[in-house]
């Protein structure tokens, strides 16, 4: 359910020539302002945050939390001990997997119209089938897609812009690519989550398209997105999961092949609703990863990242006085 945008031209402190709109959520609560024009120019001007949070006004102890975590990889270091851009995104890697930031090769591949920073995650050259690397937030961050009370929203959005390498996988160097919400971003198979996946396995088993995966308790359902996964392509991917006060879970996705200007947007639901992470212990966290699978190999596979972000809207059972 989209926010309502109401025209508004008189924000205190705006410089001459700048106009803006207010954003009001479905409860009617003021959510902030977005600049829509600068010195006569019009368009979609937005501020990017390492981390930002907004609490809607509400009666009683329950409040609506709106949290945005965006990582454009501007930090000099991306590691497990030095989180990038605001301290909410960090590297998760082991068994030879690694990450690099800011290389001219990455910048050239994305082009001058990229966002600010760039990074690469890779499986590494250690002779094993367990090397992995990923960009993650805190483990167990989200306690399932729980039921909101009347007037509140439980809605999780995820977006990533990344680019495949000149070789995505081979029979001898098989790999999984994943991005979205999952209870693990290691070399383990997720048991709870909803996420994008491409299984770059042996020829007879490999996916040809990006997939949306629903998994709960280790049981999964996979759905093709209609967008082919191929080498040397840039993909922008958005995933939105929302639960209504009636308990209905709606999942929508967009996969956009930027390189070939081809996109597909659709809604998808698992055949078995038990695959949805609706329990309060069906933990998941935003992230992305690449991991080896199949047989041991010294061949490293990689994927390049332009940005990764998540917006979490959910009720909380406490007021936040600072907001």
Q: Layout of SSEs?
A:
Layout: E1 4-8, E2 18-24, E3 30-38, E4 41-42, E5 51-55, E6 63-71, E7 90-94, E8 98-101, H1 104-110, E9 119-122, E10 132-136, E11 142-143, E12 154-164, E13 174-182, E14 192-200, E15 209-216, E16 219-228, E17 234-243, E18 249-257, E19 262-267, E20 283-293, E21 302-316
Provide a concise account of the structure shown.
The protein has 323 residues and is mainly beta. The chain is built from one helix and 21 strands. The strands form three sheets. Strands 5, 6, 8, 9, 12, 17, 18, 19 and 21 form a nine-stranded antiparallel sheet that branches. Strands 7, 10, 11, 13, 14, 15, 16 and 20 form an eight-stranded antiparallel sheet that branches.
What does this structure look like?
With 323 residues, the chain is mostly beta strands. It has 2 domains: 1-47, no CATH class; 48-316, Jelly Rolls (Sandwich), CATH 2.60.120. It has 1 helix and 21 strands. Strands 5, 6, 8, 9, 12, 17, 18, 19 and 21 form a 9-stranded antiparallel β-sheet that branches. Strands 7, 10, 11, 13, 14, 15, 16 and 20 form an 8-stranded antiparallel β-sheet that branches.
């Amino acid at each position: 359910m989209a926010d309502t945008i109401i025209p508004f031209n008189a924000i205190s402190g705006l410089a001459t020539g700048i106009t803006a709109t207010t954003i009001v959520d479905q409860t009617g609560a003021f959510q902030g302002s977005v600049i829509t024009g600068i010195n006569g120019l019009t368009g979609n001007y937005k501020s990017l945050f390492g981390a930002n949070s907004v609490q809607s006004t509400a009666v009683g102890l329950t409040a609506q939390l709106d949290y945005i975590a965006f990582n454009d990889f501007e930090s000099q270091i991306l590691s497990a001990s030095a989180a990038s851009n605001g301290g909410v995104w960090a590297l998760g890697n082991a068994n030879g997997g690694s990450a690099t930031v800011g290389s001219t090769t990455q910048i050239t591949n994305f082009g001058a119209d990229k966002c600010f920073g760039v990074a690469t995650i890779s499986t590494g050259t250690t002779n094993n089938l367990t090397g992995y690397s990923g960009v993650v937030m805190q483990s167990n961050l989200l306690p399932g897609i729980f039921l909101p009370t009347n007037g509140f929203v439980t809605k999780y959005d995820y977006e990533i812009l990344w680019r495949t390498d000149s070789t995505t996988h081979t029979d001898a160097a098989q790999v999984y690519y994943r991005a979205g919400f999952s209870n693990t971003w290691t070399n383990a198979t997720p048991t709870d989550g909803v996420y994008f996946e491409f299984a770059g396995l042996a020829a007879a088993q490999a996916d040809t398209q990006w997939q949306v995966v629903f998994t709960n308790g280790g049981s999964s359902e996979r759905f093709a997105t209609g967008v082919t996964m191929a080498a040397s392509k840039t993909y922008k991917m958005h995933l939105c999961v929302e639960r209504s006060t009636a308990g209905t879970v709606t999942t929508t996705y967009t996969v956009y092949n930027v390189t070939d200007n081809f996109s597909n947007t659709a809604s998808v639901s698992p055949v078995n609703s038990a695959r949805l992470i609706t329990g309060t212990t069906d933990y998941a966290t935003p992230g992305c990863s690449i991991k080896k699978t199949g047989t041991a190999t010294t061949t490293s596979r990689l994927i390049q990242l332009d940005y990764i972000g998540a917006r979490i809207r959910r009720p909380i059972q406490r007021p936040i006085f600072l907001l």
